[in-house]
Amino acid sequence: MEPLFLNPLFMYRIWGGTALKDKFNYEIPSNNTGECWAISSHENGDCTISNGKYKGMTLSQLWNTHREVFGNAPGDKFPLLTKILDANDNLSVQVHPNDEYANVNENGELGKTECWYIIDCDDDAEMIFGHNATSREQLSQMIANNEWSDLLRRVKVKKGDFFYVPSGTIHALCKGTLVLETQQNSDTTYRVYDYDRVDDNGNKRELHVNKSIAVTTVPHIENNNTYNTASTDSFNRTTFVSNEFFSVHKLEVFGKCNFRHDKPFSLYSVLDGNGTLTTSTSSFELTKGDNFIIPSDLDEFTLDGNMEIIYSHI
């Protein structure tokens, strides 16, 4: 079996820019392109396979008709979604529901736990992560009174940082950040605050204050940012998070290294550098911006080159 390469999809966002073209040489549709849906089977953005015998099929079609490719993993939906986000301006302050709330209130949608790897950012970049309310009543009151500077927690970010963003976390990327996002396969976002900005037609974007208050974790829970790194002469592998939703790792390749693959499937994104991926029957050139899936029956493969890769699996 070969790796499955994906054709990415691009989304206009009011806060987007041109970094996806400038940094990855992607062909973007506008100068306000905020999101690259790099590996996605969601109905709002379903990537197609670009190589091999499944070329031309969407990822959702492949999941539904050839589940053996994914190790017969359970579930009605492909569980993960990989994006690259260009925050050329501040994103809305937002929060995502968990599986139970989304299933009831969003027509069976999955919840949205996600995580961010900072690919690049401005020197003074920051993000909103968490809040200072001690009760849901206080949260509701501070939102109603527009006490954003007192309510929202801001943290500095730098290139190479990682943030785990469980459902229920108030958060927002801020201007000047380029991020790889690994998330549950969901497109449900509740906006708490959007800086009172308007679109090209003078309209403010919809807010979802009541739902936001209902799903926000109160009080905010800080994450334990302890990572494990394994090193050899040809690669470093850092495990950022491993839980019921996904495991996410950074792979820094600086030579030739052999890997055994024992997961139902794994999602790979090349963030920098170039090299090759070799199986028992084929070899594939890899370059910055490539996104692919290692299927269940690709038990062994070799990476060779100088690359920075983020990969994930269930």
UniProtKB/TrEMBL annotation:
- Cofactor(s) listed in the protein's UniProt record: Zn(2+)
Signal sequence, renumbered to the chain: none
Domain Mannose-6-phosphate isomerase cupin stretches: 237-314
Cite the SUPFAM superfamilies for this sequence.
Answer: RmlC-like cupins
Reaction equations catalysed: D-mannose 6-phosphate = D-fructose 6-phosphate
Q: What class of enzyme is it?
A: isomerase
In its UniProt record, a GO molecular function of this protein is: mannose-6-phosphate isomerase activity
Task: Give the matching Gene3D superfamilies.
Answer: Jelly Rolls
**Sorted alphabetically, which Pfam families does this protein's record hold?**
MPI_cupin_dom, PMI_typeI_cat
InterPro entries the record matches: Carb_Metab_Reg_Kinase/Isom (IPR051804), Man6P_Isoase-1 (IPR001250), Man6P_isomerase_Firm_short (IPR014628), MPI_cupin_dom (IPR049071), PMI_typeI_cat (IPR046457), RmlC-like_jellyroll (IPR014710), RmlC_Cupin_sf (IPR011051)
Sorted keywords for this record are: Isomerase, Metal-binding, Zinc
UniProt lists the family membership as follows: Belongs to the mannose-6-phosphate isomerase type 1 family.
Q: Which NCBIfam families match?
A: manA
* Name the record gives this protein: mannose-6-phosphate isomerase
Protein's organism: Romboutsia sedimentorum
Q: What is the lineage of its organism?
A: Bacteria, Bacillati, Bacillota, Clostridia, Peptostreptococcales
